Structures are given as C-alpha cells and as structure tokens.
Design the sequence.
DNA sequence: GATCATAGTCGTCTGCCTGACGATAAACAC
DNA sequence: GTGTTTATCGTCAGGCAGACGACTATGATC
C-alpha cells in the first residue's frame, strides 16, 4: 500500500525537558516563562518542536543546549566532564493537552550540576531554576507570599514524573554523580541524595556505603575544604552504572 | 499565535505493543505477520495508528483488545481478573525507522497470563506467541531449523527494551503476578520468575521470600494439584505494588 | 594561641535478610 | 508399597544496614 496521508491523522511532535539540578540543598528544575498564548506569561518546561530530520534524542539535546548551554552526555562515553545526563522520560499525548492542536510531547529528563543562571534566548528574566516543590504546588503561595500559578499544559505532571524518576533512579544507579561537578567529595554527593530525596542521611553510613561500592567512586588524590571543616578527599565518578546492592531510600 | 501548520512538520503517531506471556516455561511475545509493505510477510509487533481523538493509553488498550481480546488492567483497580497489565514503555522516533514517512511510535508493554491462541483480524496464521530469544536472534535459525528473519522496522530493539523492562520490574514490584491466572500457587509464580529471568531459583528460599513479604500474596484458602505433587495453597495478588525489600535477580 | 564549630573518616555492634541446604509432607503413578 | 514429584518448614552462616561512639583536621572566634 503506497503512502496515503488520509490513512492517519497528523500530529505535531515536541520534546519537553525536565532539567534538574541541586542548588542550595534543594532540588530545582528549569522553568521558562511563556511569551505567547496559550498560557502566555505562565511558567512552563522548556521544549520545542522536533524537526523533520531529527531524532528524538537529538531534538532533546538541541533544546537542552539552547536553554542551558549544556552538551548532552553521550551514554556511550561513561565519564564526560560538564555534560548533562539526558534520557527519555515518557510521552504525553492527551488529545486536549494543547488547546491549539494535537500535540504529542516526548518528555526527556536531564540531570545537571549546579550551573550559573540560565538563559532563555538570552533573556534571563524568562528562565529560572525553581525548587520543584514550588513548581508543583498548584495554586498555592510561593516563598515570597506571591500566588503561584501552576505550570502550563500538563507540565506539572511531567515534572512530577521526572522527579520521581530521578528519585528512584539514584537508588540503584550512579546517576547522582550527574548532579555533581567533575570532582566532588563524599559529603557533596551525600547532600545531593539528601536534596533529591528530602531526607537526612547518616554521614558515616553513607561514607561507608559509597566508598565500599566497587566502581562507584574513584579517588583523584586531591582534597578540598570548600565545604569547611576537615579536608575531604576528592572523587570522580567511576565506571559503574548500576549500584549493587542499591542505596536504600529511607522509609518515610 | 494562531494555529500555523507550517510551523512544525507533520508526524504520524502509532502505538506498538510488546505483549509478553509465559508459556511452557519460556517468555513469549506476541508477533503478527505483516500483510503489506514495507516488510511484507515479516513478523512484527502488533500496533497501529493513534486516532485523532484518542489518548495514547486508549490507543494501546484498543490495539491490545483487537489483537488478543484482553481488556487492559485499569491501574486504579488493584486487582482485576483476566485483565492485562499495560504501561507505556518508550517512544521511538528515528527519522528513518519507517521508509514511507516520518512515524513516531509510542511503544507499550503488556503482561498477560497464558492465553489461548492469538488472533489477528481473525486469522490465526498471522499471529503467534514466539519465545523472545527466537524473535531476537537476528538472522539465525529457529528451533525448526528454518531461517529466522529479524523483526520488521526497529521492533527488535523495542522488544528487547520491553523484555528488559519486564525483567527488571518484577524485581521490585509485584508485576510478576500479571503473568499468572487470578489464582495461582507459589510454585507457579516461581516458574514465572524463572522463565522471565531464565534462571533457576531455590523453591524453599523463594517460598519464604514471597510469603513473608506483606501484601504480596493473599491466600484464598483453596489448594490445587494441577502442577502435580503435593497440593499447593492458592493465592491471589495482594494490594502491594512495590516489593520491599525486592526480589533479587541472581547475579550472572 | 586556645577554644569552638564544622566536616570528614574509621570502628563497633546488633538485627535482618539471603543463599545453601537438610528434612518432612502430601499427592500421583506404577 | 515404592518411587517420583512438588510443597513447605527449619537451620545455619555470611553480608549488609542502621544506630551511634570516637577521633581527626580544618577555619572561625575570642
């Protein structure tokens, strides 16, 4: 049967990005302000149309670079400096999710170390890192007492799914290192876990666990006191992808 | 900005299904024979276009019902007889994955108990349950010595991803019960794990583990000897979704 | 410079879970 | 009855995690 355009309805396909980082002990996501309807002026996840000749992962990497300047981490290269982890999250295709037309969005999850202020088309006022709880509380009030509008489209759901993916994935993978600079201390890594999970972890047990997991951390030989206190050893992420046994998220 | 069709390239959106079941101690997937080009006569995963007014999950449930007669298991109803588990798997959008046009496929994963012979538009010769190793061995020879053509499109990759999802997910969730009939014995559940993972498990440790995990199994009071040997207690799936601690897949 | 606060690192102990495996129980086939 | 099959209970040793004590090495403060 030859190509018959009437045989299927046309869709627009976009990629949306959940870009997570840890700033000042809290898990933050990148949000951009919409400059046009629908939801003009509201915060949304960054994203855009997939181009005609582009793979989905390429489109996501392109959007990520446009919004943050980050290069996507090539999964075939285990350790790469200053590259964000990028993976496909899920696809959202409710017929009414975009009031203009039928749009299917392939959401991606990116994890990045703490970065300088974001840029959205060079306009800093239209992009920001916001704590995920703030973005997810629908119709509440932000830290400054100002009313908070929920994210545009179904982006609150997408963000929630991305956060949950990140929370569960750092349990059994070494992905938490994607939130850290190329060299980091055990304490810094622990604060990543604490921020992402929103819990306090015992520094001694955490230290024993991560240093005892083969392939997770590789000492670089250096030390730092950038966190104050006694100098701490610096590590790089090791080659291990999966943690066995996993880091257990404390129960409630 | 009004709806501007020139602002984005049009895509076709399909759903493809990885339908898994356990038959005769091996993990099998549903395959259908393609009746038209491209890949005419080759085996492929069942699937089809998403309709204009349909959600992605609805489209997947519709395709599943068309191919197998199964109703999709509503996730909000924890226990439902004879309903298959259905979840979104991943989305595949390589520009060249379909030679005819730009098609983005949202793959879904379905887990079903052992079923009578499948039907594909009523034609049994065009649908079958095949062991996943047989479908995944590219260009090899099947059990009957006949050469095996690889699956159409990128369906081998999709199937491999679905199998890996199932293998890892039964570790930390109660999803293995989706492969079982409404009432089943501990031994039947163990044989599911053994088929999906391709390993042998110790019956005594397995029994201790699953009966000791709260909420996993609920005794129905009945017994059965349908597997031969001493009568075994019958269980239903309990309300628990996540297993804590997880079932550990044996190393190597 | 003594003291304090802050982080980091090493140990210990106890309880739980797992893997290995022995032993018993209840059906069916002959 | 004897053997075979499957189910179920128990035991034991090793490993890992949570709770927590102790000590170390910095910078900050008086």
Sequence:
């Amino acid at each position: 049967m030859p190509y018959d355009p009437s045989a299927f309805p046309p869709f627009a396909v976009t990629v949306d990005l959940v870009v997570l980082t840890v700033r000042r002990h809290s898990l933050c996501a990148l949000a951009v302000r919409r400059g046009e309807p629908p939801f003009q002026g509201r915060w949304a996840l960054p994203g855009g149309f997939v181009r005609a000749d582009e793979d989905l992962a390429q489109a996501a990497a392109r959007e990520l670079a446009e919004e943050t300047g980050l290069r996507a981490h090539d999964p075939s290269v285990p350790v790469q400096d200053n590259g964000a982890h990028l993976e496909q999250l899920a696809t959202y295709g409710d017929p009414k999710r975009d009031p203009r037309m039928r749009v299917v969005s392939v959401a991606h999850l990116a994890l990045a170390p703490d970065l300088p202020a974001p840029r959205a088309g060079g306009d800093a006022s239209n992009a920001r890192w916001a704590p995920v709880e703030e973005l997810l509380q629908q119709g509440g009030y932000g830290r400054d007492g100002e009313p908070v509008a929920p994210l545009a489209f179904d982006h609150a759901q997408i963000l929630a799914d991305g956060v949950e993916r990140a929370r569960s994935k750092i349990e059994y993978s070494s992905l938490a290192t994607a939130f850290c600079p190329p060299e980091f201390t055990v304490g810094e890594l622990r604060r990543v876990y604490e921020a992402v999970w929103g819990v306090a972890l015992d520094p001694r047990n955490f230290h024993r666990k991560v240093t005892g997991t083969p392939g997770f951390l590789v000492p670089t030989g250096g030390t730092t006191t950038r966190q104050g206190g006694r100098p701490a050893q610096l590590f790089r992420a090791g080659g291990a992808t999966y943690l066995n046994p996993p880091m257990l998220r404390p129960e409630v």
Chain A is about 25% helix and 25% strand. The first strand of chain A starts at residue 12 and ends at 23.
